[in-house]
Design a protein that fits this description.
mainly alpha; Rossmann fold; globular; 7 strands; single chain; two-stranded antiparallel sheet; 556 residues
Length: 556
């Protein structure tokens, strides 16, 4: 077996034992690899793989004396799109059990080798993996080029005709159908892939398709089927938690995410998720434990979210821990230097400064900055995360400054804009520490939004579509509530279908205005209770993430 391009390859060896690092590096050199970097820890590997592109990665699964795991590292990088589709990733382990072989196959590893491995074993596994990458090059190139429809057609053709690597292409086809908004077609693909035996990753794909279609009970049943067979399947616990959040069952969601962390304790993102969700549930001790773990796992990582530092600052303020609060403020200020133009990070940093100045006895300065932040509540860039932050800061403001007219106006404005679902409303209430008066204001805002939606629907059913859209637009011009804006668009489409035409000219100005409002003011909710909503799917194959999907997480 030959690999004529091996001399062009860049390889990374991640191995804690110096002797084994040297042996593996020498074996790669003998195979003709042109550039080799050798390091000893998973945390170093995470940083390096985020910054540089490698064609080959040889990584130890075990790191003695550390909670780090090579499998956890791979799962996280793969799930969060930090590995190129063309990278060959081979895991090295001291021993391997059957369930670990299954785990490796389902996580899309390119190979697993038991140490010590001979040069012949390494060559066979490495060359076969690189051959597969070359065989699938047209599909991978289409993905890298953002040509989803073309990649789907190529993958479906290879899967249906049972060509080599057809099963992988079938899985890819299912993922692409989900991304293209075709959950019913994706469900058919994943059900076929699952077969009679019920392949766990395919069942999770089917569950995600049901979730995308809004069929929560069916999705939950599939996830429970996976967990009954594989209780240690972390991705299944992730989806279980997501389903509970969609149903506003936050206590059960937290338990599901905690189980995922128990399986993968060194996963930075899962620690962030548990910490943030526990914070909004009022479980300070659990929140502090996991948010601190996320910080220790790597503030420099691209997977780290600055919200973690802001939530830790809120916890330090609650505990009257001034040194801890100052430490979190310093870390956040240092983090923001990496993204100097980020409005989001500036807002988080200012929020922490509100807490710090109050803790230092500078009450007037703290309130002045808090009012400055509150004044941005009507801005287009003001999002759900900003709303949660403001509610949390006001909940910690001095007693005499809260619950007045100024505070009420802010809360009602936030409620009228962001109360689009029960789950989001519950999180807003949690951010406000479930203060009875604030909860009443938010509930009133939610009820007001529902009443407008019902009145608009009544007018539409009565045959007056222009009046229905005008009623909705009157509200959303002042309070750009995504639910009401989407209702405008849905009613416009429904009226056109009823008339048997693509669009009704008399409704077009209203629809154009609704689309502009949505694009300008309704940023996707990146966090619901701290759980990232970026389109990344636990249990799914990595797809090339679009820039707009990652901008907010990076601090934009």
């Amino acid at each position: 077996m030959r690999d004529r391009d091996i001399h062009k390859a860049r390889a990374l060896v991640v191995e804690p034992q110096a002797t084994m690092r040297n042996v593996l590096s020498a074996q790669l050199r003998d195979l003709g690899v042109g550039h080799i970097t050798a390091i000893k820890s998973a945390s170093e590997a995470r940083m390096l793989l985020e910054q540089e592109a490698f064609d080959i990665v040889l990584c130890s699964r075990e790191f003695e004396g550390s909670h780090e795991s090579g499998q956890d590292l791979f799962d996280e990088l793969w799930r969060e799109n930090q590995l190129s589709l063309s990278t060959v990733f081979i895991m090295l382990c001291d021993k391997v059990a059957y369930h670990q072989v299954v785990e490796a196959a389902e996580s899309a590893l390119d190979g697993m080798i038991v140490r010590p491995c001979s040069a012949t074993q390494l060559q066979a596994r490495l060359f076969e993996a690189r051959k597969r990458k070359r065989e699938l090059e047209p599909v991978l190139q289409a993905l890298d080029g953002g040509q989803d429809e073309q990649a789907l057609a190529l993958a479906m053709r290879r899967w249906v005709s049972q060509q080599p690597y057809g099963a992988w292409c079938g899985r890819l086809a299912g993922e692409l159908l989900l991304r293209l908004g075709r959950p019913a077609d994706a469900l058919k693909v994943f059900e076929t892939l699952a077969g009679a035996a019920g392949v766990p990753w395919a069942l999770l794909g089917a569950a995600r398709a049901q979730l995308a279609a809004g069929h929560l009970p069916q999705a939950q049943a599939l996830v429970q089927r996976v967990l009954a067979a594989e209780p240690g399947y972390a991705d299944a616990h992730d989806i279980d938690g997501r389903l509970f959040i969609e149903q506003s069952q936050f206590d059960r969601a937290l338990q599901a995410y905690q189980r995922a962390v128990e399986v993968t304790p060194s996963c930075l993102l899962r620690n962030q998720h548990v910490g943030a969700l526990a914070f909004y549930q009022g479980q300070a001790r659990v929140a502090a434990k996991h948010l601190s773990a996320a910080v220790s796992l790597g503030v420099q990582s691209k997977l780290f979210d600055a919200l973690t530092l802001a939530l830790l600052a809120l916890l330090h303020a609650d505990a009257k821990d001034l040194p801890g609060l100052r430490g979190a403020a310093g870390q956040l200020a240092q983090y923001r230097q990496r993204f100097s133009g980020s409005l989001r990070l500036m807002r988080l940093e200012q929020g922490v400064q509100v807490l710090l100045r109050s803790a230092e006895g500078k009450t007037d300065e703290s309130l002045e900055l808090l009012r400055h932040l509150s004044a941005s509540a009507g801005d287009d860039a003001f999002d759900l995360e900003a709303a949660n932050l403001l509610l949390g800061l006001w909940a910690r403001a001095p007693e005499g400054t809260r619950l007045g007219a100024e505070h009420e106006a802010l809360v009602r404005r936030i409620g009228l804009r962001f109360c689009t679902s029960r789950a989001i409303s519950e999180v807003l209430m949690g951010a406000a520490r479930r203060d009875a008066t604030v909860v009443e204001w938010l509930q009133a805002s939610q009820q007001s939004t529902g009443a407008v939606a019902e009145r608009a629907m009544a007018r539409f059913v009565a045959g007056d579509a222009p009046a229905a859209l005008a009623l909705l637009l009157d509200r959303v011009r002042e309070h750009p509530n995504a639910k009401l804006i989407e209702q405008v668009l849905a009613l416009g489409q429904r009226a056109a279908r009823a008339a048997g035409v693509p669009a009704l000219p008399e409704l077009q100005p209203a629809l154009d205005e609704a689309r502009q409002l949505h694009a300008r003011s309704c940023r996707a909710a990146n966090h619901i209770a701290g759980i990232q909503r970026s389109g990344r799917s636990p249990g799914g194959l990595q797809l090339r993430v679009r820039k707009q999907e990652t901008a907010h997480a990076a601090g934009a």
